[in-house]
From TrEMBL:
Keyword entries, A-Z: ATP-binding, Ligase, Magnesium, Metal-binding, Nucleotide-binding, One-carbon metabolism
Protein name: Folylpolyglutamate synthase
Biological source species: Vicia faba (Broad bean)
Cofactor(s) for this UniProt protein: a monovalent cation
Domain Mur ligase central intervals: 69-218
Family statement drawn from the similarity comment of this UniProt entry: Belongs to the folylpolyglutamate synthase family.
Presence of keyword Lipoprotein: no
Domain of life: Eukaryota
Enzyme class: ligase
GO annotation, cellular component aspect: cytosol; mitochondrion
Residues that coordinate or bind ATP: R315, D337
Cofactor binding, per record: A monovalent cation.
């Protein structure tokens, strides 16, 4: 990238700066999240407009054709569908999402591809150096997420995208992305209980925060919501003269026999919202003539292509472990989903239960003896493999969640929904995250054998799981799988139905050892509870 004058909005030549140095500088901006209030000017929402002036982004953001999306569940999926549709319509797209799973650059996508290192470094240092120079004690450096949102606006402005799809990080009203004064259209995905320590304890309060992205007279769409949440959304919309509509779920028949690029039945809800957002964006920007949207019984070819080719890591993602190169090494399969609210946990459980059946293309047998109380809930799943022996499915849970979450709300929904579909975990593994909250990049991981790691939260999770298992004793077989019996020397706390491991790498090694020692078993591991955990697993499994 050639050196250009920073005053015209183009990046200066900083690409020689090391990537890790940039991530270290970014890490210095990480603070504990707090509710936006007036006690500290640095935490006030209005200070964002001061940062925008410092970066000369006022006019550029005003001219940007933005789609703004908030919600509890499905924000990332809806934004991904939306970006893919408009890219397939021929537009140059910018997509800002959070969190990232492996690399910070995942948050900034240009035409569906994460920004390259050279451009990231150039834009990063352009923004960081300018803010360092102009901030002071009264207006301190922006915190981590605010800086990333400002960086996204800078990238999309400089790269001259036709449309910027901005996913809200947290809430809506006080989110850093909400500096947008006149988006083209807004979207609110499914609402539920999450981040209550910041957004409020009722669905009404949470809906009020999300509706903070509504702007005067700007059209908005949502999906079917719980009554309390919908009432608040409608009240907020009415006060701002916002034409709020409920987007219907996508009818699968409109995909001409194809399937959505993102797995799970719930994605038809997100796809329906994305269609409404894209259709409105096309109409309000004068591009409606480019696509045939008049008919309701068909979808434009570009929409179908966008919906069926969309991809998003860490949401209903299936990854086969390839650590061992032998032909028998594919019997350890990770099912990754970053669900972390009660509602999304239920959706995740439903997806996993169906996926572990669909992921076995050969003849499968599920034995369920309803008349025998002792074995009425014991599922034995076998598969006739190519090598002439039968494979038994062993579902395992790999779980962690933030301490602000309530495992008493998350784990029962997960267990009960899986049970409703005839799936029972043979073992639940609880691990601390590899990532630490105050670092980005290669320094963001704890050491593999850190003896000082605090496992008290994992022990709490384990107790919650064991109590659930005890409460369901009459329903779930007490038989422990032979393939899981022998080894607990690697764990810090082992019970019949669960174990705590001091680190994720140790837990992965334990799973790989079991897979190697039990070639006739297919280990199907659901990784959930935290997108951070999902990202950490991807880093290890994809190495």
């Amino acid at each position: 990238m050639t050196e250009q004058d920073g005053g015209n909005g183009s990046p200066k030549s900083s690409s020689l700066t090391s990537y890790e140095e940039a991530l270290e500088a970014l890490s210095s901006l990480i603070i504990r999240r707090t509710r936006a209030d007036g006690t500290n000017f640095g935490d006030q929402f209005d200070v964002l407009f001061e940062y925008i002036k410092m970066l000369d982004l006022e006019e550029q953001i005003t001219n940007m054709k933005i789609i703004h999306v908030a919600g509890t569940k499905g924000k990332g999926s809806t934004c991904t569908f939306t970006e893919s549709i408009l890219r397939n319509c021929g537009f140059r797209t910018g997509l800002f999402t959070s969190p990232h799973l492996i690399d910070i650059r995942e948050r900034f996508r240009l035409n569906g591809i994460e920004i390259c290192r050279e451009k990231f470094l150039a834009y990063f240092w352009w923004c960081y150096d300018r803010l360092k120079e102009k901030t002071d004690d009264n207006i301190p450096m922006p915190n981590y997420f605010r800086f990333l949102a400002l960086l996204a606006f800078k990238i999309f402005a400089a790269e001259q995208v036709d449309v910027a799809i901005m996913e809200v990080g947290l809430g809506g009203k006080y989110d850093a992305t909400n500096v947008v004064k006149a988006p083209i259209v807004c979207g609110i995905t499914s609402l539920g209980y999450d981040h209550m320590e910041i957004l409020g304890n009722t669905l009404g309060e949470i809906a009020g925060e999300k509706a903070g992205i509504f702007k005067d007279w700007i059209p908005a769409f949502t999906v079917t919501q719980p009554e309390e949440a919908m009432r608040v959304l409608e009240e907020k919309a009415s006060k701002l003269n916002v034409p709020l509509q409920v987007a219907p779920p996508l009818d699968a028949k409109l995909l001409d026999g194809l399937t959505l690029g993102l797995e799970g039945e719930h994605q038809y809800l997100n796809a329906g919202l994305a269609i409404a957002l894209c259709s409105t964006w096309l109409k309000r920007t004068g591009h409606l003539g480019d696509t045939n949207l008049e008919r309701t019984d068909t979808l434009p070819e570009q929409f179908i292509k966008g919906l069926t080719s969309a991809s998003l890591q860490g949401r209903a993602q299936i990854v086969t472990d390839t650590h061992f190169k032998s032909e028998q090494s594919n019997e350890l399969v990770f099912y990754l989903d970053g669900a972390h609210s009660p509602e999304s946990m239920e959706v995740c459980a439903r997806w996993f239960s169906l996926a572990i059946r669909e992921n076995n293309p050969d003849q499968t047998l599920f034995h369920r003896q309803i008349d025998n109380p002792k074995s009425s809930h014991e599922i034995v799943k076998t598969q006739q493999g190519e090598r002439g022996f039968q494979r038994k499915s062993t579902p395992i849970l790999l779980f962690n969640c933030l301490t602000v979450r309530d495992p008493q709300l998350l784990l029962p929904r997960l267990m009960e929904t899986c049970a409703d579909h005839g799936v029972y975990f043979k073992k639940a593994l609880f691990v601390p995250s590899l990532s630490v909250f105050n670092k980005v990049g290669s320094q963001a991981s704890t050491t593999l054998t850190d003896s000082k790691v605090d496992l008290s939260w994992q022990f709490d999770l384990q107790r919650a799981w064991e109590n659930l298992m005890q409460g369901n004793k009459g329903k779930i077989t007490d038989t422990v799988s032979e393939e899981l019996k022998d080894d607990t020397e690697m764990s810090d706390s082992n019970y019949e139905h669960s174990a705590v491991f001091s680190s994720l790498p140790v837990a992965i090694k334990w799973l790989r050892d079991r897979s190697q020692q039990n070639q006739s078993v297919r280990f199907q591991v659901l990784v959930t509870g935290s997108l951070h955990l999902v990202g950490d697993v991807l880093k290890l499994v994809k190495k």
